[in-house]
Specification:
The structure is a single chain. By secondary structure, the chain is mainly β. It has a single domain (about 5-445), classed as Beta Barrel (Porin), CATH 2.40.160.50. The chain is built from three helices and 24 strands. The longest helix is centred in the N-terminal third of the chain and has 19 residues, at about 5-20. The protein starts with a helix and ends with a strand.
Length: about 450
């Protein structure tokens, strides 16, 4: 398959999962209201805030009344227990990442919350993340999950920003999980505010096949069953605004994973051989924390968002199939998306790492009740896969700095637009600075 066509197909499929994380909870119900006032010459805006007249940011799910451009606007209360959304868009990179200049974006998102059960589903055919939880007794629930990453066609690694054709393989993973969980509602007691602790037994299947570009000396690992366990915790005390962006509060979580590859063997291409002894069993730990607050001395329209993401694993046990992957995409906001490691401007799954620490600080300004400006700075330290000698691959600690300016705004047809420009100091392209653009259109269904 020609490189450009192959990476176009990979771009569509691999970006599905990443991009749909950013659409969670899209409910731009006020967009049609804006059509009625677009031609008004008046340029005043005021919010209804009781007798005090003090302005308050409109919050997700709540009814809202304001006067915009001389016209009254009433946004009715919304049911955040029932959400469906579609995202379309694209990203552009300069210089290219590997031999890829851009990626299309397409995704679907579904969330349903009933009295005794709930589901959150990201459906994209080749990459899916599905969860269904059922209350058993009081705060005890049964948690079931299904995940697959089964992209068709060859997938080649990018090392030192160069596409390595000989590493091209068609591989994938299917994983199912089940186990007990505890869920407690927490302040501010919205649909996404809870404390969850889950202990899951996991079983799945891994496959790996040669393709036309696979190097003749490349030894592939065998197809195998996977067995393991996951301990997962999530806390979300965030209040979100009308665009479902975190508005106030704290969220945190961690994952502790153990996996056994049942049928395993040495694999790789000499001198880069991964031994069965080192890679058959592996343990990974990752966590995050995010806090959002008003800026002292300024109005509620000004917010500061601080986040930390970290992950660790034993370097000798890490290979291309189980490494943490650094990706870009829309800024995380939805409760189950906050754990995603978002380094803006990065192609989905581009950078395999064994360990990472990432800190981001964002200043957000509410320009009007349906439009928000983001200014974000990110710093990352990661042990990433790199070429360290003649035909040798190892993990080298790299550092990166990233700047982003973005805009979230309500749009026509009950939808939302996100546009951002991102600059990277050289972490993405192994020392070469670069930039990127991302545009997404999120449609509430």
């Amino acid at each position: 398959m020609p490189h450009n066509h192959r990476f176009f197909v990979q771009g569509i499929t691999t970006f599905l999962l990443m991009s749909c994380f950013g659409i969670a909870g899209v409910e731009c119900v006020y967009a049609n209201e804006l059509l009625a006032v677009a031609s008004s010459p008046t340029e005043t805006a005021a919010a209804s805030a009781g007798d005090s007249g003090e302005y308050h940011t409109p919050l997700a799910g709540e009814p809202y009344h304001t006067v915009f451009m001389g016209q009254p606007i009433d946004v009715p209360a919304q049911d955040r227990r029932n959400v469906s959304a579609l995202t379309l868009g694209a990203t552009y990179y300069t210089p290219s990442q590997g031999d890829t200049d851009g990626s299309p974006i397409f995704a679907l998102y579904f969330k349903r919350v009933w009295d005794k059960s709930r589901t959150r589903d990201i459906v994209s055919i080749f990459i899916n993340d599905l969860e269904y939880d059922r209350t058993l007794w009081k705060n005890l629930e049964l948690v079931t999950r299904f995940e697959n990453n089964t992209i068709p066609g060859g997938q080649a690694e990018v090392l030192n920003n160069q596409l390595i054709d000989a590493t091209s393989q068609e591989y994938g993973t299917i994983m199912a999980s089940i186990g007990p969980g505890l869920r407690f509602k927490v302040a501010p007691f919205q649909v996404d505010n809870d404390l969850r602790l889950q202990l899951l037994a996991r079983t799945g299947y891994f496959y790996d096949h040669r393709v036309a570009d696979t190097g003749p000396n490349m030894v592939l690992p065998p197809d195998t069953m996977l067995y393991g366990a996951k301990l997962r915790a999530r806390y979300d005390g965030m209040r979100r605004n009308i665009l479902e962006l975190p508005h106030q509060g704290i969220a945190a979580g961690f994952d502790l994973d153990f996996t056994n590859r049942d049928k395993w063997a040495d694999f790789g291409s000499p001198p880069n051989v991964f031994t069965k002894h080192n890679t058959q069993d592996y343990t990974q730990a990752s966590g995050y924390v995010m806090a959002v607050s008003s800026i002292p001395g300024l109005s509620e329209k000004n917010k500061i968002v601080v986040s930390y993401h970290g992950g660790t694993s034993e370097k000798s046990s890490v290979d291309r199939y189980n490494a943490f992957r650094i990706s870009g995409g829309p800024l995380p906001g939805e409760s189950d998306d906050l754990s995603r490691v978002d380094y803006p401007g990065t192609m989905f799954g581009l950078i395999p790492v064994a360990n990472y620490n990432m800190v981001a600080v964002e200043c957000r300004r509410e320009l009007t009740f349906f439009m928000y400006l983001h200014l974000r700075g990110t710093y990352i330290e990661a042990s990433r896969s790199s070429i360290v000698g003649t035909n040798q691959v190892g993990f080298v600690t790299n550092y990166g700095k990233n700047a982003l300016i973005g805009l979230d705004t309500g749009f026509l047809w009950n939808s939302e637009l996100y546009l951002a420009y991102e600059w990277d100091s050289g972490f993405i392209r192994n020392g070469t600075p670069g930039s990127g653009l991302i545009l997404t259109w999120n449609k509430s269904l």
